[in-house]
Design a protein that fits this description.
Elements lengths: L4 E3 L3 E2 L5 E6 L9 E7 L6 E6 L5 E3 L8 E6 L4 E6 L8 E8 L8 E2 L3 E5 L2
Parallel strand pairs: 2-11
Antiparallel strand pairs: 1-3, 3-8, 4-5, 4-9, 5-6, 7-8, 9-10, 9-11
Amino acid sequence: QVRLVESGGDLVQPGSSLRLSCTAPGFTLEHYALAWFRQAPGKEREGVLCISSRGQITSLSDSVKGRFTISRDNVKNTVSLQMNSLKPEDTAVYYCAADLLCDHRMNNYGKGTLVTVSS
C-alpha cells in the first residue's frame, strides 16, 4: 500500500493558477504511473491527468485540456499538477493516485487537498 500525501490546495479566484504536489514518504514512486483525480461536491471522483513511469501523459478528462499539466520528478519523488485559468467548476478535492498503469480507476489514493475557485 502506497501512502500518498498531497499539498497545495487553496482558495483562489477565477483565472488564477495553482500548483499541487504529491509525494510518498518512505516509498519510491519511480516505477509507478501517477495520476490526479478530483471529486467535486455532489459528484463522483473523476480522473484528470496521468503520467506513466516512462513519462507518457494520458488525459483522463476533456474539461482540463490546455489548462492543466502533469509532471513528475523522480529525484524529488513527486508528481505535480499545474492548473492554469482556473474556473469555479474546477472546485473539488484533488487526489493523487498511483498504480502500475494509468487508468480511470487506480489502486492507491491520497487523502486529498481542497481547491476552491471563487470570487
